[in-house]
Amino acid sequence: MTDEILRVENLHVSVEGTEILKGMSLTIHRGEIHVIMGRNGAGKSTLASVIMGHPAYEITEGTVHYRGTNLDDMSVFERARAGMFLSFQYPAVIPGVQVGTFLKKSVQSVRDEEIKARAFRKELNEAMATLEMDKKVLSRYVNDGFSGGEKKRLEILQMLLLKPHLALLDETDSGLDIDALRIVAKGINTVAPEAGCLIITHYQRLLDHVKPHFVHVMINGTIVESGGPELALKLERDGYDWLEAPKEA
Fold this sequence. Notes:
By secondary structure, the chain is α/β, with parallel strands linked by helices. The chain has a single domain, classed as P-loop containing nucleotide triphosphate hydrolases (Rossmann fold), CATH 3.40.50. It contains 8 helices and 12 strands. α5 runs parallel beside α6. The protein is globular, with a radius of gyration of 18 Å. The N and C termini lie far apart (38 Å).
């Protein structure tokens, strides 16, 4: 695990003059799974959005490098084509666009090449089998009338097909039942060995299925504690107050 995928250094980010990230630093290598936990408003989703290039966020200090390239020089589309993937906390509904068409066009666009129908069908069938998805979903409109679990599973299907170098997963486990959580975790574990993964979550339960190398705690826009999977268990048990308590001299 020596290939550096993402390096965030002293990152300060503001929205409309309000600072949200306040000196964030993080490095992810290929094959590593990093988890960020923290209360609502800590800046977790902001970090994912900034890495992906959301225009509402202004970097006021610090840098973000992806595979050695400063992301200041890359548009959102260029980031996606370079192998960055973001799963949304609230996936968008796209009425009138069939899932099968959406998936094929997305893969073609990111790979920047024409995909032969037979080869794509084979890839798609294998990915859907991994996620135990019914092929009937391909004729439905994207996320239109989907349950929360169906939306999240469709995002993981996109990830399997796009084969990203960096997977940013923003509360992918929220609202999932036990079976859906297991299946989504299976998709993450399929991609993880060849990618850098950053998982944002509130709950330890996902980590029963996806084993992180590092767990980080964000409070007030910066990482205040890092550790292994045992840190997530401690947070589940004790919450965040112990991290905010004054330290004894």
